[in-house]
Amino acid sequence: LQLTLRKGREVIDGICFGREEDLSGTLREGQALDIVARLASRVFGGFESLQLEIRDVAPAGALAGSGRPA
């Protein structure tokens, strides 16, 4: 699952492996999210860019009280 994350004018691409089926109907464009991620550098076509490797993602506030780390 590939995401473009935006906060104000700042934008970064993110990628999440193995969660396409359980997240595809849950996330909407413009929705606030809680994300656990790692910043990673990638090189493609000779150009380096930063990308978030997303470990967990949920609608904002959905993880509160679930026993899962927010």
Descriptive report:
With 70 residues, the chain is mainly β. It has one domain (2-59). It is built from one helix and four strands, in the order ββαββ. The chain has one helix spanning 20-23; strands at residues 2-7, 10-15, 33-44, 47-59. The chain has a four-stranded mixed beta sheet, with no helix packed on it. A hairpin with a 2-residue loop joins β3 and β4. The longest helix has 4 residues, at 20-23. The protein is globular. It starts with a strand and ends in an 11-residue tail after the last strand.
Task: Give a count of the beta strands, DSSP E runs of length 2 or more.
Answer: 4
Reading the helices and strands in chain order gives: EEHEE
Task: Report the uncertain regions.
Answer: none
Count of spatially separate domains = 1
As a percent range, the share of helical residues equals under 10%
Radius of gyration: 13 Å
Helix and strand content put the structural class at mainly beta
Mean pLDDT: 82
**Oligomeric state:** single chain
In this structure, how is the largest beta sheet organized?
4 strands, mixed
Strand order of the largest sheet: 1-2-4-3
Total helical segments: 1
Measured between the Cα atoms of the first and last residue, the distance is 20 Å
C-alpha geometry: globular
Residue share in β-strands = over 45%
